[in-house]
Amino acid sequence: MGIFLDQRSSMNSNQIGAPNVPLSATPTLFGIIGLQTQNAPNTVIALDGMVGISGDIGDTFTVEIVRGATYNPANVIFTLTGTVSVTGATEVHSFTAQDLLAPPAAETVYTAFISGTTTAVRNGPEVFRGIASTA
């Protein structure tokens, strides 16, 4: 039987039309959470979220989940690459990831970054959340 340790969420925007930020080739932070894992061995982290994207057909974007407070390609634990399929409409893309190798620590920080084609925009909603438990 698993033991619940912590649950956190980070919401940058809960509505379509905001924040309306253009994507760039440089990964940009859109969510950060710190999960209290209480130095527990065999910690399992479940992460999920969503991001709204608007752009032209064929515009691409990449969501990366990183263990740590800053972007470091060596610490990426999950990558989602998507493509805009409808011009001018906001498309909400969801993702689900797990960190099965979470280190035993008092708290583990996870960050969500997005990058992509410069004609696409982050157009809400934007949510990132996680749950920590032990096996």
Structural description of this entry:
With 135 residues, this protein is mostly beta strands. It has no helices and nine strands. It has strands spanning 3-13, 21-22, 28-36, 43-54, 60-67, 76-83, 91-99, 107-116, 121-134. Strands 1, 2, 4, 7 and 9 form a five-stranded antiparallel beta sheet that branches. The radius of gyration is 15 Å and the shape is elongated. It starts with a strand and ends with a strand. The model has no long low-confidence stretch (mean pLDDT 92).
Q: Key features?
A:
five-stranded antiparallel beta sheet, 135 residues, mainly beta
List the helices and strands and how they pair.
Blueprint: E1 3-13, E2 21-22, E3 28-36, E4 43-54, E5 60-67, E6 76-83, E7 91-99, E8 107-116, E9 121-134
Antiparallel strand pairs: 1-9, 2-9, 3-8, 4-7, 4-9, 5-6, 5-8
What does the largest sheet look like? 5 strands, antiparallel
Mean pLDDT: 92
> How much of the residues is beta strand, in percent?
over 45%
Shape: elongated
| Helix content estimate | under 10%
Question: Radius of gyration, Cα only, in angstroms?
Answer: 15 Å
What are the segments in which pLDDT stays under 50 over at least 5 consecutive residues? none
The count of helical stretches stands at: 0
Order of helices and strands: EEEEEEEEE
Cα end-to-end separation? 7 Å
- Number of DSSP strands? 9
Structural class: mainly beta
